[in-house]
Each structure stands twice: as structure tokens, then as C-alpha cells.
Design brief:
This protein has 303 residues and is mainly alpha-helical. It contains 13 helices and 2 strands. It has helices spanning 10-45, 62-69, 71-102, 109-117, 124-134, 140-147, 161-188, 193-201, 206-217, 219-234, 238-244, 257-266, 272-300; strands spanning 47-50, 55-58. The protein has a two-stranded antiparallel sheet with strand order 1-2. Helix 2 (62-69) packs across helix 13 and helix 12 (257-266) runs antiparallel to helix 13 (272-300). The longest helix is centred in the N-terminal third of the chain and has 36 residues, at 10-45. The radius of gyration is 25 Å and the shape is flat. The mean pLDDT is 84.
């Protein structure tokens, strides 16, 4: 097959040049603050770094081999994946259901939209402190359980390995649902009412309208929600750090990969090279998941 080359006019060439000129500041900033940073992290991953003496000892693949024998890294990866597997589907499904309800003709829907959006106005640090108080031994959650005679004595959710990560899961789900609900609501505003009217004529109930009209219509935004949720949960750091005071406790039950990177880089271990390796592995995992999600989304598009 013969390839036909397009000849650009002088005006088009000037437009291209102008476009690249306008892009130059952004390209320089991204190259310096992102490109060089990534290259430096890759460089660190092959070295044993001492921040105090500023020495870099080349160790080859030793840091990468250490990941497969490090029990702490295995625990951190397990907690991170468990956190993502639980939080992502729950917050996505709940946001989808809540947005569908708020988009209906229920009374006071504007009031509930405002109430559901309020958590997004609060910082993650403040929300973590609030949930730590709620789930403390003398907090309202234990008070309610005692009054309902569910337990005989208060549960120390914050210091119990079986509950600590689940408290952070509940907090993350509660705080992120409003943002995704708002995204779904914005998309539902463009859904033609005639589709629901036609379904009513055919005798479809609320559940069938939701499953066969709302859910398929929201597939593109759902893929975006899933992708951002996965990336956010895999990078979860601040909540685990505040909850455990940077230790990942109790008994490493709240240790995530991001928190582990921080501990190895700036903690007592003084292992910046190994921390860089963990950060790169996490970045590769996120990149692979993003590419798979994008591929799945492109295959579902109808041209």
C-alpha cells in the first residue's frame, strides 16, 4: 500500500510552531520536576543510599531481590490490595445507587445532595481524627454497641489488628462516595427522560430501569470512577499515617505500600534506595492496571 505524505502549507507550519512554543514552558516544567525525578528514582533503586553521609553504593538488583524476601513488604502489599479490593467496588456501587436516587423525583433531593457533598469539603486529616474519635473505646460507636447489648465491653478498634484497617476502609468509603456521586449526578443530567418514559410504557420497574438504562448509560463515567478509585486506594498514605502515627500498627495491620516507602526512606531504616524500589514497583502496578482499564474501556466503545 502506497503511503501518501501530506504537504503542509506555510500557514499550517506556523500554527504548529506556535503550538509547540506555547507548550514549551509546560514541557520544560514536566521534564524537570517529573521526568528528571523519575530518572533519579530509578537511579536510586540500584543503589544503597545513606542520606547522612550522602553516599551512593551501587548494589545492582539487590533492592529488587529484597522485595521478594521482605515479609514487611509482603504485608504492606497485601494490606494495600485488600484495601483496594474492598473500597473500590463498595464506594462505586453505593455512589451509583445514591446518585440514581437523588436524580429521581423524591422530596428534598436538593437538601440531600448538599448533605452528601459535605464530606468532600473536609480535609482527609480532619476526617481521620473524627473517625478515630468515633471508633475509640469511649466513642459513640462503642457507646451504641453497649446500649444495644451487642458487646459487653467496648472494643478497642484503633488498637485491634482485626478492626484497624476496616475502620480506615469505612472512613475512605464514607468520604469518597460524595465526590463520585456528584460525578454520576452530572452525567445523569444528560440522560434523556424519554428512555425512562419508554421503559415505563413497556412496564419496566425501578430496578429494571436502573439495571438496563442507568447502568449501561453510565459505563464511561463508571470506568473513570473505577480507575481513579483504584489509583487512589493503591496510593493511600495520609489516613494510615495519621491513624497509626506513622508506624503502620497495630501489628502492621494498617501498613500500606506508600506508608512503607515513607518509613524506609525517612524512618530509622535509612534505606532510600529500597524505598525508591518499592515506589517504582507501586508505580508499575498502577500503570499496568490503568492500561488494562483503558483497554477494557476502548473495547466496549461502539464506533
Amino acid at each position: 500500500m502506497k503511503t501518501v505524505k501530506r504537504c503542509y502549507t506555510g500557514y499550517e507550519k506556523r500554527e504548529h510552531v506556535q503550538g509547540y512554543v506555547f507548550l514549551t514552558p509546560a514541557i520544560i516544567i514536566l521534564s524537570v520536576f517529573i521526568g528528571l525525578s523519575v530518572l533519579f528514582v530509578i537511579y536510586l533503586s540500584f543503589h544503597k543510599v545513606n542520606l547522612f553521609t550522602r553516599t551512593y553504593e551501587f548494589v545492582g538488583l539487590q533492592n529488587y531481590k529484597r522485595v521478594f524476601t521482605d515479609d514487611i513488604a509482603r504485608i504492606g502489599l497485601k494490606n494495600t490490595l485488600m484495601f483496594s479490593v474492598v473500597v473500590v467496588p463498595v464506594q462505586t456501587i453505593m455512589a451509583l445507587i445514591i446518585s440514581s436516587v437523588l436524580n429521581s423525583k423524591i422530596k428534598g433531593k436538593y437538601f440531600f445532595r448538599t448533605v452528601y457533598f459535605l464530606p468532600t469539603l473536609t480535609s482527609s486529616s480532619a476526617l481521620t481524627m473524627i473517625f478515630m474519635f468515633m471508633f475509640s473505646v469511649s466513642g459513640p460507636i462503642n457507646g451504641a454497641l453497649l446500649r444495644l447489648h451487642v458487646v459487653e465491653q467496648g472494643i478497642n478498634f484503633l488498637q485491634e489488628p482485626a478492626f484497624a484497617l476496616k475502620v480506615i476502609m469505612a472512613m475512605n468509603i464514607w468520604s469518597t462516595i460524595p465526590m463520585y456521586t456528584t460525578m454520576y449526578l452530572a452525567s445523569l443530567q444528560d440522560l434523556p427522560a424519554s428512555m425512562y418514559e419508554a421503559a415505563d410504557i413497556d412496564g419496566a420497574g425501578p430496578v429494571k430501569r436502573f439495571l438496563y438504562i442507568t447502568v449501561p448509560y453510565l459505563k464511561p463515567i463508571t470506568m473513570y470512577v473505577l480507575l481513579t478509585s483504584i489509583i487512589g486506594t493503591l496510593q493511600m498514605f495520609d489516613q494510615a499515617y495519621i491513624f497509626s502515627n506513622g508506624s503502620g500498627g497495630p501489628a502492621n495491620s494498617t501498613l500500606t505500600v506508600s506508608l512503607m516507602v515513607y518509613k524506609y526512606a525517612f524512618g530509622t531504616q535509612n534505606a532510600m534506595g529500597y524505598a525508591a524500589t518499592l515506589a517504582l514497583i507501586l508505580a508499575v502496578i498502577i500503570m499496568v492496571i490503568s492500561m488494562l482499564a483503558e483497554k477494557a474501556n476502548s473495547e466496549e466503545r461502539v464506533y
